[in-house]
Amino acid sequence: MKTVSISSKGQIAIPKTARTLLQIKQGDKLIFKIKDGKILLEPIIGIPRSEAWFWKKEIQQKIKKADENYKAGKFKRYKNVDMLIKNLKDE
Hints:
Layout: H1 16-22, E1 29-35, E2 38-44, H2 57-71, H3 81-90
Antiparallel strand pairs: 1-2
């Protein structure tokens, strides 16, 4: 077990073995949590704001459902784009 010291500014250094294992590098962001009297640091991956909608729970559920339908063969095939557009307009 490695130990770390707290600097006069309240900073700690994450041991190199942990940084390597978790692929943490300079400038990365971590979530800071306190749970059951322990400090937890969790690496986070930032995403562009313009792509944030994709990761919302309801969108991910719809993608999962669409994937399940596809795997189950529940989809239509169209011979060309015009047929697809016509079908979409009819619905």
